[in-house]
Amino acid sequence: MADRKIFAGPRIRRIRHAEKLTQTAMAERLGISPSYLNLIERNQRPLTVQIILKLTSVFRVDPEQLQGESDATVGEIRQVFSDPLLADDVPSETELLEVAEAAPNVAASIVKLHRAYVEQGERLSDLSSILAKEGRVTAVAGKRMPIDEVRELLEARPNHFPAIEAAAEAFYDTLSPGDALLPALKEWFRAEQGLSVRVLPVSTMPLWRRRFDRHSQRLFISERLSPFDQLREVAMEAAMIALARPIAEQIEALPLSTEEARRIARFELARYAAHALIMPYERFHTAARRVRYDIDVLRSRFSVSFEQVANRLTTLRRDGMEGVPFFMLEIDNAGNRFRRAGATGFPQQRFGGHCPKLAIHAAFTQPGQLFVEAVEMPDSAAFLTVSRTLEGPQGSFSERPRRTAILLGCDLNQKDEIVYGDGLPGVEAGGTKEAFVPATPIGPACRLCERQACLARAEPPITRPLGLDEMVTGLSAFDFR
């Protein structure tokens, strides 16, 4: 205790009130002045060893009680104020600590109310999903973080921007890169913008993937990135300069409410433009159809990564030159969602993407392995899914590498157009199909799924009452009627 300062003003005040003492009376019993006790109660002075010993002997206070950690409560209150609804009223760490220490019961009540609020929001979202399936349009009102606003807008629309695609193809033609896009972009930067591109070591760029130094007119790229990601970062910077107008026009067309949301959207559209520049639409579409959407062949042909090809496949929606309508989901091993896109907007209502039985979760057990399977929803909608892990930027020896997993999916009826359809049970090589293709039964999410006896169930469905029969226990963790 002597190694660290203990500020316990609110606790001392509670002890004094419990003993029904004035500050003068308590100070006298502790052998200190009333003014000093006043400073202690206001957390302007720490407890000394002598005062702690006095409190122990005179008021029979457990020393551990005086240094009882309120970190957990402070963390919970901090989480409450991280809610988008309170984004403009975030208190300081000192204020959070004062609330947790001075009024622990009030702090606990605030946390309980916030948990109930979050639970109600999740239930409203679930009910909205159920009603949407019945053709009833609903909207759950509430203040959102800018990143959530951008994601929802982009996920709800087709992942295709014709003006950006056309501008990217025209820019590609002016570069005439042949098979060397990165050198062509570097030369364009030098000749047209007076910029140079350099790859810097981790020690020089410990926090950034890419940084543009306006003073020295240099674009710095981190050596942590793979050659494919380095190319994308350079292409993004070029797109924000050469394709600024179509990107700006598209941002203006999106109903975004804040400047922060527009900044995030600009980054996302620059990323889209980079893919369009690295893999020009017509060339990529022709190659993809010719190799039956084999991602590994395409990544080799265009010198890009698995993730970049998967992203690009979700964008093939040009009028008169459509590809298979793929959709894509990317998560980490904790289930956090990074990206959803594709088809005519990510098929949230039909596919969901939150079922723990999806192979995207199993992919983490075998990094780099390709998982191909057919899945079937409760309404008999069936999909072909391809899942695989992705490796993030390279860390140092002491850092744990970032790993995510990606799922690429399409309607099962289009399996004959895709090379991965040949790997499904019940389908012969070349796409010849038999009468039955077995599919893994999945659901949109546990809270919306009514499949009985599901071993993977994590939550009960909100649409059914729980089964509370003490004489019968089902296979699922949550029995329901």
Automatic annotation (TrEMBL):
Transmembrane segments: none annotated. Keywords: DNA-binding, Transcription, Transcription regulation. It holds the Pfam family ScfRs. Belongs to the short-chain fatty acyl-CoA assimilation regulator (ScfR) family. CDD domains: HTH_XRE. This is Cro/Cl family transcriptional regulator. GO terms for molecular function: DNA binding; DNA-binding transcription factor activity. Residues 12-66 form the HTH cro/C1-type domain. Gene3D superfamilies: lambda repressor-like DNA-binding domains (1.10.260.40). SMART domains: HTH_XRE (SM00530). PANTHER family: HTH-TYPE TRANSCRIPTIONAL REGULATOR, HTH-TYPE TRANSCRIPTIONAL REGULATOR SUTR. InterPro entries: Cro/C1-type_HTH, HTH_RamB, IrrE_HExxH, Lambda_DNA-bd_dom_sf, ScfR_C, TransReg_Diox_bact_type. GO terms for cellular component: cytosol.
